[in-house]
Amino acid sequence: MSTLTHLPVDPVADLAHIIARAEVRGAIAPDDAATADRLLQGLREGWHDLGGEARASLGLIAGPLRARRDALDAPMAPRGGRPLPLRDVLAQMGVTALRHGQDRPILASLAGADSLVVMPTGSGKSLCFQAPAFAGGGLTVVVSPLIALIQDQHDRLADMGLPVAMVTSLQSPREAYAAINAIGRGEARLVLCAPERFVHEAFTDAVRANPVDLLAIDEAHCLAEWGHDFRPEYLHLARLRDLLAPRAMMALTATATPDVSDEIVRRLGLRDPVTVRTGFDRPNLSLDVIRLDGKGAVARKWAALEAGLAGAGGIPAIVYCGTRRATEEVAEGLAARGFRAVGYHAGMSDDDRTRAQESFMSGNADVMAATNAFGMGIDRADVRGVWHWSIPTSLEAYYQEAGRAGRDGMPGRAVLLAMRADLGRLIRFATDDRGVPGGDPRAARNRAWSGYRAITGYVDADGCRRRVILTHFGDPAVGAPSGRCCDVCDPLPPEAVPPAGPATARRVAPAAGPAGRPGADHPDLAPADQAMFERLREWRRERADGTPAYTVCADRALRAIAVHRPRDEASLLGINGVGPAFIERHSASLFGVLDPSA
Q: Using CA atoms in the order 358, 362, 363, 367, what is the torsion angle rounded to 10 degrees?
């Protein structure tokens, strides 16, 4: 544990060691209690001589220790299962060293103190509640807003052999029943759930059958009406302190301004929380805004995205779109340009979203075009670029999504393709009560307008974009990029926005590739081919069965099929945009359309 051996003054380090020994034994030994009293007295007398770092560390360790002096035999006592040494837990999780900021909330939780954790996306917030969950003696309950996040964390921990359980709406009744019974029997040390789960009496009773050491609220900005992703169901979480009686609470978020942080503390009733703000800079990310206005703006937008994805280190990538329709258009357009792209939005069926997510996470797809429904909890560490096809509704939303690039620490890009035409959508969002559900409508409108001003200020900034973001989040640190900073500090080369046109399309998908692969566009089809193309489009609508047509195949591939009329699977596989999965699912039906007499 990094703080235990690298604290700034010896008395503080000694107190940290007392906490660590109590963590292992499940109690503070009498000799340690006496030593702690003596150290605390000395530190109080010499308080003014301590530096800021020492005071912060002392506040973390001494506060919880002093608060539990009335029960010295049980500050770390096991209340459920057998506590494990923290080092052993970290080793089992494959953690060889803690990242900056992780040690303080872990220590706070083990000492029974509340905490507020504000750390950027990809900085390891989840470990702050996972480690104490398995090192403590009771139960840790984690509330998360998205099932994808819950599923991902559960699967990772279960694969490590750790006692974890989840209860979600996507589980079968049998699976949910089994998980609830396991929780009630005390077989789980960490429980992951959505906020709505506590309306179910059986689940709540199972949790309450255990002593709860920690209640962690992930994505805590969702309960702040000034947050960018306010969710009314989060407002009910404050009552869980009385319902579950946890020793400690922890609120975690990546995108909380100082005002939002204050609202989180107030709404949850956090008690003198240990506050960890590790800074908002992501040194390995470059931040670019490409402005696209005037005649031909959409064509230049496509050219910029295509050039960026096709360049060195351009993929894997996520392209965030403002609407479901734009998501489908971008996914189909990228597929037509030769990219392995899939789409994801809330209007798709659960099965189609799952297939798209699995395709991207497994590497079978290189580009994910998505609305903001795809994001929280998605942990593909090697994403090189996050592109925004549309201007998002707030700077918080933008930076959270942008932070999904470069989570492996390698260089990543965050690019905003900004068109003034997008502003009309944002204004409609800010003035339409239906666009901002939950809570006080006036607060919702104010929140939307605040988000509008912040994101347009970022787009229009004539200074360093990194500085704009850090200032917005109240971070006074000087940005320290490890590579390119932004388009203001390090202007993009002219080729980053190439002129759009036929040459661009031919470069990505030549008319005839290796072995005569037919991949050319056919803008002017012969009458017979045009008729076949229309029949194939009707066939594709039927095969899509209510899902977006491009999930079967793109128009470009369909035109090539209409012209070349493949007669067997080998020749069909030669069509650009047709792969083994298409052959398996659709080839027999397709051949029936191409040759009705067969």
A: 30
**pLDDT at residue 68 in the model:** 42
Tell me, yes or no, whether 118 and 255 share the same domain: yes
Position 349 scores a pLDDT of: 86
Same domain as 323, residue 472: yes
CA-CA-CA-CA torsion sign (266, 267, 271, 275): negative
What local confidence, expressed as pLDDT, does residue 508 receive? Answer: 34
Q: Would you say residue 501 lies in a domain?
A: no
Do residue 525 and residue 570 come from a single domain? yes
Pair (324, 430) in one structural domain: yes
Give the per-residue SS3 of 174-229: HHHHHHHHHHHCCCCCEEEECHHHHHCHHHHHHHHCCCEEEEEECCHHHHCCCCCC
CB-neighbour burial class of residue 67 (10 A; exposed 0-12, middle 13-18, buried 19+):
middle
Q: Which of 496, 520, 543 is the last residue of a domain?
A: 496
Closest CA to 442 of 430, 426, 427: 430
Is 409 domain-assigned? yes
316 preceded by a cis bond (ω within 30 of 0): yes
- Look at residue 286 in the predicted model and tell me its pLDDT: 95
User: Distance between alpha carbon 527 and the CA centroid of its chain, in Å?
Assistant: 49
**pTM for this model (two decimals):** 0.65
Question: What span, in angstroms and rounded, lies between the C-alpha atoms of 360 and 554?
Answer: 18
Look at residue 503 and tell me if it is in a domain.
no
Within this chain, do residues 437 and 519 fall inside the same structural domain, yes or no? no
**H-helix or E-strand containing 318?**
strand 317-320
Which residues in the chain land under pLDDT 50? 1-9, 23-25, 66-80, 435, 502-523, 598
Structural domain includes residue 62: yes
pLDDT in tens, 411-450: 999 999 998 888 877 887 777 655 455 556 777 777 778 8
Q: Looking at 234, 251, 277, which one is the last position of a domain?
A: 277
Enumerate the β-bridge partners of residue 192: 142, 166
User: Which residue from 329, 447, 469, 431 is spatially nearest to 389, judged by alpha carbons?
Assistant: 329
DSSP code per residue over 428-486 = HHHH-GGGS-SS-HHHHHHHHHHHHHHHHHHHH-SS-HHHHHHHHTT--SPP--SS--B
Torsion of CA 89, 91, 92, 95, to 10 degrees: 100
Question: Distance from CA of residue 19 to its chain's centroid?
Answer: 33
Domain extent, residue 139, equals: 78-277
Say how far apart CA 371 and CA 327 lie, in whole Å: 7
Contacts of 258 (CB under 8 A, 6+ apart): 474
Read off the amino acid at residue 112. G
